[in-house]
Fold:
Amino acid sequence: MADKLVHLIITRQDTPDSTPYKEEFKVPYRPNMNVISALMEIQRNPVNAQGQKTKPVIWESNCLEEVCGACSMVINGKPRQACSALVDKLEQPIRIEPMSTFPVQRDLSVDRSRMFDALKRVKAWIPIDGTYDLGPGPRMPEVDRQWAYELSKCMTCGVCLEACPNVNEKSPFIGPFAISQVRLFNQHPTGAMNKHERLEALMGEGGIAECGNSQNCVQACPKGIPLTTSIAHMNKETNKYALKRFFFS
Amino acid sequence: MANSQEFVSRRIHSLLGLVPIGLFLLVHLVANYSATRGAEAFNSTVTFMESLPILIVLEFVFIYIPLLFHAIYGIYIAFQAKSNVGNFGYLRNHLFLWQRISGIITLIFVAWHVWQTRIQIAMGTEFNYDLMASILSNPAMVVFYVIGVLAAVFHFSNGIWSFLVHWGITVGPRSQRLASYFTLVIFVVVSFIGIRAITAFIQ
Structure:
C-alpha cells in the first residue's frame, strides 16, 4: 500500500499581492485521510510532484471536526471544510484553491474579516450589560429554541459567501450568514428588545436587498442552516418595519 | 437611521415588475390574442385601446416610467452578479442567471418593438392588423418576436417567484417549491397566449 499516492493540485500564492500559481503534489496515501492530513504530509515533506523542494503549503485549521469554520477552502470546485473532506470520497486529482471571495493572505489562508465586520454591523449579539443588575431575562419557548439552535450552528466559515453570485468585488453584499444571524438574535426574547437596530442594519448598504435568490447558500452551507428561509423571513420583517417606519413615525 | 436607499429601490424594482409592468404584459398579450379571431377583431381591440381617455397619461404613468426604472435599475443588478453555474449547477442558480439574461433580451426586444410600433404611430403611421402582419412577414422578425416574447414571459414568471420571496410571502422551502410549480404553469400558459398571437399575424 505504501506506493499508493494522493494527487493534489494546489493553487498557491506567496504574498497577498503576488500572482497565484498552481503546484502539483503526490503524497503517500493512508486509509481515512482527509484533505488536512494530505496537507500535513506536504508540510512534513515539502516536495512537489516534479520532485523539487518547495515551500510548504500554508492553511488554517483548528477544531478538525467541522465546527470552527477555519479550514474552509475550495475543493474540486466546491467551497467546504478541508477537515471533513475525505480523500476517499474525492475525485483525483484533488483540486484545492483558496476561497476567492476573500483576500488571500498566503496559499490557502484567507482573511475573513469582512464576515466579522458584517456581524458587527448587524449587531449579532445580545446586549445584557447595565449599570445595575438587570435580573433574569424572559424565558424562551422550547419550540423556538429548537430551530434557533439550528441557526446558531453558523461558524462564520465563509462557504455561503463563496457560493453566492451576488457576493463579489462589484457588490457590497454582507452575505447570507449575517441575515440568518439577525433572525437568530431577533428571535431571542432579550435580543428582540433591540431588534429594530438589526433590521435597520439589514436595510442599509449591502444588506438584505442585495440577495438575488440564487439559493446557492442553502445548498452549500455545511451546517445545513436554512439560510433561504431566514432570508425570506427577514425580507418580511424588514418590509414590515420599513412600511411601519414610513407611515407611522 | 441607516441609509436604506438601496433597500427601497430594490423593493420598488420588485413591486413595479409585477404591478404595473407584469399586469401590462398580461393585458398586452391577451389583447394581441384577439388577432386569432381575425383582423377585424384585432382592429376593434386596437380601436378600444386607443379610445381610452387620457391615454398618453396612462401610458406614461403605468408603462413608460415604471418600465424605464425597472429596466435601468435592472441592468445595474444584472451586471453586479458574478454567475457561477459552472460550480453550482442548481436549478435556482440557473434561473438566477436566466432571470438576468432574459431581462437583457427583453429590454433589447422591447426597445426595438416600441420603435417599430409606438414611435411609428407617434410619427403618423396608422396602427392596425396590417402593420403587424407586414412586420411579421419577415421570418427573421418572427424569430425575434418569439424570442422576445418568451424572454419577457420567462422574466415575468420567474419574477413572480422572486417577488413572493422578496415580500416574505413564500418563506419556507415547501411554499417556495409550490411557487416554482405555480410560476411554471404561468410561464407555459402566458407563452402560449403570446406565441399564438404572433402566429395569428402570419399569413
